[in-house]
Amino acid sequence: YDERMSEAIPVPIRERTRRLVQTELTSVAQDLFVAHGYEETTVDQIAAAAGMSKRTFFRYFPSKDDLVIGKYDLFADRMAEALDDRPTNEPVWESLRRVFDITLDYVQDDHQRARNDAMDEIVRSSPQLNARYLEKMQRVQGLLIGRIATRLTGQEHDPTDPTPAAIVGAAFACMQAA
């Protein structure tokens, strides 16, 4: 955000294009994982289904595991952007509640919900993927903690103050329960 401008600086087209391709690859891969199983699906099959070479696939994701877990980086960025877009004078709990509206895309559509549930099961059933998922969720929360601290105090986050982390952690617990 540039203080001299009244609007946020837009995401460059190259980054938007990269995110779109990553999203499309993730969608194609998830459909294959649900149909054939995670372990049975190869990067070659994902690349072919997406209409690209294996080499091009690796420009977007370093591995099949990263493709599964990479959606949480995109999720983190979307959540941080959504919080940044909320009015700064809005109550923190209301802002967080509205930020979680982006998760509605994953549960309101029956096909998307079934695919998301299947992907969650894949992640939970793999110790390696589950550990990486937990790391990514920690990153998501970390991105929001600093922003919430600034909203609460108008200053940089004081790491000795547990309040912002407690608020964000409680909000995530509510989202998981819902």
In short:
The protein is mainly α. The protein contains nine helices and no strands.
Detailed description of the structure:
It is a single chain. The protein is mainly α. The protein has helices at residues 13-36, 43-50, 54-60, 64-85, 92-99, 105-108, 110-125, 127-153, 163-177. The longest helix is centred in the C-terminal third of the chain and has 27 residues, at 127-153. It starts with 12 loop residues before the first helix and ends with a helix.
Secondary structure topology:
Layout: H1 13-36, H2 43-50, H3 54-60, H4 64-85, H5 92-99, H6 105-108, H7 110-125, H8 127-153, H9 163-177
Helix pairs in contact: 1-2, 1-4, 1-7, 4-5, 4-8, 7-8, 8-9
* Unreliable sequence segments: 1-6
Give helix % range.
over 70%
What Rg, in angstroms, do the CA atoms define?
Answer: 18 Å
Calculate the terminal CA-CA distance, rounded to whole Å. 33 Å
Number of helical segments with 4 or more residues: 9
Strand proportion: under 5%
Mean pLDDT: 86
Following the backbone from N to C, one meets helices and strands in this order, namely: HHHHHHHHH
The largest pleated sheet is described as: none
Look at the helices and sheets and give the structural class. mainly alpha
Give the strand tally: 0
CA-based shape: globular
